Amino acid sequence: MAESMRKFEYRGHKVELTREDCLGGWAQTYYYITDRTGYELACDFSESEDTLETWETIMKERIDEEIKEEHPWGVGSDWTSEGERCVIKEGGLVAVEWCEVSYP
What we know:
four-stranded antiparallel β-sheet; two-stranded antiparallel ribbon; 1 helix
């Protein structure tokens, strides 16, 4: 199978879809969704035989559903020693940034 790839941006997210043979010899579709800063929000693979055009529709629907959530992509409850990931919604777009957080 020939390798094929599709990249697109949608509502402030960058999506990369790749259809290629895995090491086992069968075709798989790999996907990556990042915010506009390159922070990875989701990635996975599938053995489905759907076309990349179908996967583009699936990814757009997934982004639309995540944007509707109070904490898109599960962001907002993760802690690090440096701060908390904060979600900023502006005009229907979602951006993820590192924020300094101090609590009394």
